[in-house]
Amino acid sequence: DTGVSQDPRHKITKRGQNVTFRCDPISEHNRLYWYRQTLGQGPEFLTYFQNEAQLEKSRLLSDRFSAERPKGSFSTLEIQRTEQGDSAMYLCASSLGQSLASPLHFGNGTRLTVT
Amino acid sequence: DQQVKQNSPSLSVQEGRISILNCDYTNSMFDYFLWYKKYPAEGPTFLISISSIKDKNEDGRFTVFLNKSAKHLSLHIVPSQPGDSAVYFCAATSTSGTYKYIFGTGTRLKVLA
Q1: Which one of B46, B89, B98 has the shortest CB-CB distance to A105?
Q2: Number of helices and strands (H, E) in chain A?
Q3: What is the mean pLDDT of chain B?
Q4: In chain A, what residues touch B51 (CB-CB under 8 Å)?
Q5: How many angstroms separate the CA atoms of B57 and B50, rounded?
Q6: Do the chains contact at A56 and B4, CB–CB below 8 Å?
Q7: Which uninterrupted H or E stretch holds B25?
Q8: Please, what is the Cα angle at A35 between B40 and B87, to 5 degrees?
Q9: What is the pLDDT of residues A14-30, one digit of tens each?
Q10: Which residue does chain B place closest to A106, by CA atoms?
Q11: Which residues have CB under 8 Å from A57's CB, separation 6+?
Q12: Helices and strands, number each (H, E), in chain B
């Protein structure tokens, strides 16, 4: 099963530290998304890529967040100078971008705890 | 600006009965809608979708209904099984826009044996 893979599954860090998460999408999926989910809320859009191009970034996303997808395959999400409010589940999803919409396929997420 | 709303945070249903989960949206540009199921410590799993050119789509025990004039969709699960107990999210996107998927806040379904 070559589903969406995220690493690490859990990350505990101290306030002010930088963290980086990795996502490997389903092979041949050209769209890759990052979402954030907190308790009692639905997934909140952060950013997405079509191939290596970052096409949209949420206005809610501070400059401390940056994402890359250098070769149009895996992606990384970096959070600099973490704050306690960054504690959440970070979800990656991929889809096969076509002229018609196709569903997102999610990984199991990276749970970030900032102490 | 909550463009996709699930107004029922929880729902309990007896095993074998029908579960009906509801979702409302405000953006008239949305034309593709999806339902996801989420178990604890896992990512959301895609269940079923519907395009705005249809008003119903079925897949086994799952049926999604779309009422465009009311900007409302629902997910019917018949018959409900204990393994269906999970949090269900609806999502919507505009295929003529940026393909950004907007999610509701979820409904926790508990199927009682």
Answers
A1: B46
A2: 0, 11
A3: 95
A4: 100-101
A5: 6
A6: no
A7: strand B19-25
A8: 30
A9: 999 999 999 999 998 99
A10: B43
A11: A46, A47, A67
A12: 0, 11
| Amino acid identity for residue B83 in this structure | G
Q: How crowded is residue A86: how many other Cβ atoms within 10 Å of its Cβ?
A: 19
* Alpha carbons B59 and B50: distance in angstroms, whole number: 11
Instruction: Kindly report the length of chain A.
Output: 115
Nearest to B35 by CA among B82, B80, B92: B92
Give pLDDT tens digits for A53-62. 998 899 878 8
* Residue type at position A45: F
Residue with tokens 């191009």: A53
What is the structure's pLDDT at A102? 87
Say if CB B2 and CB B92 are below 8 A apart. no
* CB B31 within 8 Å of CB B99: no
The mean pLDDT value for A62-84 works out to 94
Q: Which of A106, A110, A111 to mutate to test the interface with B (most CBs of B within 10 A)?
A: A106
Is A45 within 8 Å of B46 when comparing Cβ atoms? no
